[in-house]
Structures are given as C-alpha cells and as structure tokens.
Inverse folding.
C-alpha cells in the first residue's frame, strides 16, 4: 500500500466529507433563505390556537404566558383583552389567537437551524460548524503550492474574506 501525501489525503477527505454533508448544507441553505423573510408570510400558513391560561392576567403576564414578546393590547373591552390576531378572556382564562408558522418541511429545517445549546441535537450543529471550517481550510490543499491554480485560489480566498469583512462592517 503506497503512502499518500498530505495533499492527497486532504483532497480525499475534502471530497468525501463534501459529498457526505450535502444534505445538511441544503437544509441550512434553505432554512437560512426562509429566515431572511421571517418578517413576511413567505412559506407560512395560519394556525389557530386556544389556550387555557390563568385568570385575570395583565398584559405583561399574558405576553409571558403566550411567549409573544410583541403582544400589544389594542382594544380592552370588559373582561376581554384584544390583541393582534387574538383575544384573552380574563374571566375564563381562555386565549384564542392565530399565528403564522412555516409550512412543512421548512418548519423542521428552521428548527434545526435555530438549535440552542440546551437542545439534544446541538452537538450535530457544533460538529457541522467544525466540518465546514475543515472544508474551508482543506480547500487550500486542492492544488500544489506554487502552481497557478493555488495562487488563483489564494487570491479568490483573500477577495472573499475582504468581501465578507466589508459586508459586515458597512
């Protein structure tokens, strides 16, 4: 068995890992695009909810109970508090409201994209981030040092880093 050079190993690993992570890259790309438009109804549908809450909640308690940070009472009337897309009856404690949620499969993709450290799947996102870093650095072993292709790759990489820095600091 012949011994492979570091260039050959890195190229093989880059190729194989690249093929292996194609599914995750597609999921992250699609969910990232969908999240750009999260302030619109793009890829969303309306879902109606009815929740039994504690009685006589004020607006801040209602906001916390429904996990709606932007909840604003628009028209209180007797025992009923009206808010955008819903209402809350102080006497019964029942809240009826509708929310926009992403359609399937984007709802699942976005849940993977927005994982927190306390979620059981957080290790997948961490490993994926590390694998992407490996893909970045292993690309420098695609061509032998000193060749035209290697120099061209370095120039494009530097241009890409400068573009990213300019984009984030504008």
């Amino acid at each position: 068995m012949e011994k492979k050079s570091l260039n050959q190993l890195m190229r093989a690993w880059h190729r194989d890992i690249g093929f292996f992570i194609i599914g995750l890259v597609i999921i992250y790309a699609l969910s990232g695009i969908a999240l750009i438009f999260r302030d619109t109804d793009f890829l969303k549908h309306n879902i109606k909810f009815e929740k039994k809450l504690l009685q006589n909640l004020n607006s801040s308690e209602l906001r916390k109970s429904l996990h709606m940070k932007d909840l604003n009472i628009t028209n209180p009337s007797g025992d009923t508090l009206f808010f955008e897309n819903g209402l809350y009856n102080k006497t019964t404690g029942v809240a009826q409201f509708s929310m926009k949620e992403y359609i399937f499969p984007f709802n699942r993709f976005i849940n993977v994209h927005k994982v927190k450290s306390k979620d059981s799947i957080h290790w997948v996102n961490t490993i994926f981030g590390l694998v992407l870093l490996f893909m970045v650095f292993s690309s420098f072993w695609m061509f032998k040092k000193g060749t035209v292709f290697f120099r061209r790759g370095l120039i494009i990489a530097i241009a890409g880093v400068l573009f990213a820095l300019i984009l984030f600091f504008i």
Summary: The radius of gyration is 25 Å. Residues 148-169 form the longest helix (22 residues).
